[in-house]
What does this fold into?
Amino acid sequence: MIESLYPERHILSIDLKSFFASCECIVRRLDPFIFPLVVANPNQGGGAITLAVTPALKKLGVPSRGRIYEIPKNIKYVIVPPRMSLYIKFSEKVLSIYLDYVAKEDIHIYSIDECFLDVTDYLKLYKKTDYELAKEILDEITKRTGLTATCGIGPNILLAKVAMDVEAKKDKNGIAKWTYEDVKSKLWKIAPLSKMWGIGPRMEKRLNRLGINSIGDLAQYDKYELKSLFGVLGEELWEHSNGIDLSTIKNKNCQIKDKSYSNSQVLFKDYDGNNVQIIIKEMVDVVSRRLRNNNKQAFNVGLAIGYSKNVGGGFYHVMKLNNPTDSSNIILKVCKLLFDKYYNNKPIRKVGVTVCGLVIKENIQLNLFENFDLIRKEDKKEITIDEITSKYGKNSLLRASSLLPDSTIIERNKKIGGHSA
It folds into this structure.
């Protein structure tokens, strides 16, 4: 049994319902459950992205992330422009409520409208069950801010989040509790795969090609084959599909303290899941070259994606490797896996690649599945490229993709100097 193998916490995953739209209604003294309001940029016309819609519009089938022109013509609504400063103020008020109940280290801010709370060590203090405490917190949010929240409760972060996404939003009290015993009856039924937290549309397509169409299919797929196809992410996918999540809020709040190399940039226009691959590739080349120039290898690779300010949010995830590397090919493969797993088709305005867990490069560590000659050949190629760009300038030898209109590397190299430091 899973529950006998893994420790059980009491995690609350709290989401502020229709957050942007609700904030706009509250300051206008309107009821978001009655008034049809859309948060979008009115200057962008029918192609504007609907950043949020009120529950009143959701009941009529209007999605929160769509385009203005997709709203049926027979539905009347009011458009208001987004005001991030207003939403931040509301978010800070809600955070102060959480801090009335738990310490800062037991809160993980997931986004402007979502938080995780570990209430395990507080239940005896308040003499309440996790469900009772969740209800009290949700009632307090409504009382002090006017916002409505939903909450998922689980023995780990994953099950709490999925309980909130799948069930709590439909519950009359806005609360749903899942345990390990609910994995087969509830978690495994989730389909399509992108309805599961942590599986984006791109990863969904890759899994579909393997005949995996539901979380149950994923849970029963061979764990080691998934790992061979997707690396550490494959193992994580299998564990999550079985309700296993060993991460803790304290761990998520920890900052990486060891030295790291990173490269990030704010893009001059919105990018999508296709043309942003050029940017990621170029940034991987930068950090991998820095590793080699300093005779270092990295155990961890991280990818950060920031969405357009009109949409807000993004993600940052790190994958730990079995062996340290300075190979641009390996780092790029990891970044692509992270991107496919977490990207959800929003416009991109910021990209960052980080390598950390650095060690001095001494010997090449191989396993039975790696070709030593190919690794040595790749190593020599990258060293040769480093020598050429160091002598003749960073723009002297580039990938062919760097000549495409969406590339930024040539101009960036000019601004930071043509020769390597």
